[in-house]
């Protein structure tokens, strides 16, 4: 899933430059199809993998803002909610619609994709509106504003009939599949890596390193930060849209501040600025509760502890963060990628940020 | 660059100064850090800005580059008033700088440090505040991101060009061997030179250097000054240098401005400034010569 580092002067390109943009997608699609086929009807595995995929999308996209750009957003669940509700409501509206020129299954997927994109676009638009005023200012304004945004979204949802109020929205077509989730995982990772390796990504790193110097070197720091934020919000919206289409019901409880913090923990745990770190941390933190559940059941603590995993999860994250800050403050990988920290005998990528 | 600059140039007949400060002043609370500061830099100039510690030299740089907004007076870049513009906008109009306390992008490689600066010049930037211009700039910049994400051939060519440009600047500053090293791992003197390379990456017309030789020995300082003169000629720049070493400044600069307590106490050719009573007093008064006059 890794893109070739830019630039590649010495090696003769395997793929002509004009095709390098789409080549990874062409490779990914059959792999995803195979993956879906292998998974077959394994319901729980499909569900768990989907949750994991959504978490990866959230962590990788938040890492662009909190890691690469060095800002501090703590309202990612709010953007996820926007994507979930907008695409969910749209899918409910389109439930009876079918594109006559396509087979039913294909038509459903096309409409699902459409709602996803609309949800993502709505989240991106919110990102723009939230980011433009708050990213102009230094310091903690973004944290405060994103925190407020998450809460506002929750209040709006709770008071709007068409969003199902506190009860939630059910009956959204279960159009999502692990293949679809991982298609978006693939896209967000590809986009984040390409961004990191491009001159735009370099400008983001520069802002993280020294905003005053970046500005003095002609970098429109506000513009860059807003663009990074819009990028990040878009994928959070997509993650929300996917989520809404494989869980039986979405309600405001799924998009709380705790959820936002969970994503922040993933990014910090993986290492601020490391895409692969965010992925590893998202996988780990998705499996941790499941692991604890099975462990407690196996230990035979008569189910009670196993059922309370969701409640004791946050304290455990807290402890995890404290331990991390003491033992490895830069996170698992720092701002490096997995292949930069692999043992020496494994083939390494070129040094640098790309 | 923008229409208003050309308009001013045409009106004046002669080309206006690349950088012009007209009675600029700034106050921090009760402290007048800079008062009635005047300065004109033209292409080919190599000017010095000196004064004892706390005289307001760095503050003058910060006002000229938009980091601070002046409370009095005007700053003009090629005739266009830039009061209220952001630092990146002033940079794009052709004014680049280095920092007294080195501010490199520490975790980025030497090459990437320069590439950031080169890249910034290629975006479309709105100079006017009109909504239409803002919209056009935003559309251009978002489209630029799409090109990067889609890895279009045009984008790949652009990246290659930026790399070549940055490599060239590293070579000019004698840093080619540090290309892929993180900036924070470079020795002090090389960090200072990398800052100059980075500033040159923004393709400036005016270069402001804040104590570029600080921490170097006499020999290195002399070499650096020769290099600065060469840069001025090769890149057709106007240069303004802050430097504590009087002998060095006197030796290389053609025009010197002396600040003390925010006020300009002398300006003119080195010989003129050297004999100025106020200048000698300012330096002796701060027992400057004892602490800084030597080879330091
Ligand atoms: N942001 C600020 N807020 C308050 N006071 C400031 C600020 N920046 C500078 N000053 C004050 O302005 C005065 C001039 O400072 P400046 O850094 O310009 O001196 P300088 O001539 O560059 O000295 P040096 O040779 O030590 O670099 C000092 O008294 C300083 O404390
Ligand atoms: Mg200074």
Task: Report what the structure shows.
The complex is a heterodimer of chains A (354) and B (296). Chain A is mainly α. Chain A has a single domain (44-340), classed as ABC transporter involved in vitamin B12 uptake, BtuC (Orthogonal Bundle). Chain A is built from 14 helices and 2 strands. Chain A has helices spanning 23-39, 43-68, 76-93, 104-134, 141-158, 178-197, 199-209, 211-216, 221-244, 257-270, 275-299, 304-307, 309-327, 338-341; strands at 169-170, 249-250. A two-stranded antiparallel sheet of chain A has the order 1-2. The radius of gyration of chain A is 21 Å and the shape is globular. The two termini of chain A are 14 Å apart. The relative contact order of chain A is 0.16. Residues 1-5 and 350-354 of chain A have low confidence and may be disordered. Chain B has 296 residues and is of the alpha/beta class. Chain B folds into 2 domains: 1-94 and 204-296, Rossmann fold (3-Layer(aba) Sandwich); 108-203, P-loop containing nucleotide triphosphate hydrolases (Rossmann fold), CATH 3.40.50.300. In chain B, the strands form 2 sheets. In chain B, strands 6-7-8-3-9-10 form a 6-stranded mixed sheet, sandwiched between helices. Chain B has a 4-stranded antiparallel sheet with strand order 2-1-4-5. In chain B, a hairpin with a 2-residue loop joins β1 (19-28) and β2. The longest helix of chain B is centred in the middle third of the chain and has 20 residues, at 131-150. Chains A and B meet through α6, α7, α8 and α9 of A and α3, α4, α5, α6 and α7 of B. Magnesium ion is lined by residues 57-58, 100 of chain B.
